[in-house]
Fold this protein.
Amino acid sequence: MHNMRNLEIVWDDLMEAFENPDPEMIYFLDRETGEIFSVPADYDDDPFWDEVEAQNERYLTIPAFDYAQERQMVHAFIQGVENDGLKAMLVRAFVGKQSHGRLSEILSFYPEEQERFNAVREELITGRVGQWLEEHDIYPPERGF
């Protein structure tokens, strides 16, 4: 297990890495500097990959976007919608491909529900980030994890 440490991390950068749905990008956290950086998955630089592998305690791979968890969150959100007409539209959008984009378009006409959706989504991602940081014994001072 790693030593517990306080580490200054740019929270917005870390959240962006957790929210990134592009499987062609790999994000890392540098445990020494707190820097978040990304490289293309097909990055052709053997010395870079050798360095990352040799210092795997320093460079942590940030987990890929969790589509399954996102879908569960969207499903739970839709179940909480009280407007029956809106709920029916969201259910139809949810069962299609790329449902998140359509959900956002629909919710753009319902600002209060859009705000609630964004809060629920941010809470989910913040929870994932906090759990991941704790698993690696990293406690950013400003977030209190």
